[in-house]
Amino acid sequence: QLQLVESGGGSVQPGGSLRLSCAASGFNFDNYGIGWFRQAPGKEREGVSCVSSVKGTTYYADSVKGRFTISRDNAKNTVYLQMNNLKPEDTANYYCAAGPLAILLADAMYYWGKGTLVTVSS
Fold first, then answer.
1. In this predicted structure, what is the pLDDT of residue 58?
2. Which of 4, 50, 54, 93 would suit a FRET pair with 100, their CA atoms being 20 to 30 Å apart?
């Protein structure tokens, strides 16, 4: 059964850190680009970061560059998103998704997880 399962969300104060994980199963993980997307209440889903399948090339939205780091462990079928210096505007549900390309475009992704909530508040 194909699954993407996110974990690691929670509540943190501004300036804090969290590491999200996305565990994949049921498909050939190595062949897919994996992206992290987020959606805040009342806002559209936006791409945060993605990593390509073969070379592991990474891409970031301008809003998270220098603060977030994406990585993948193909041996564990898992992608991570290390989030540092978190800001209140980072509050959202975070989703991982798999697609044929590493691109911050939700419509290009084939498979989605159910999300994990990140809340940044003092």
1. 97
2. 93
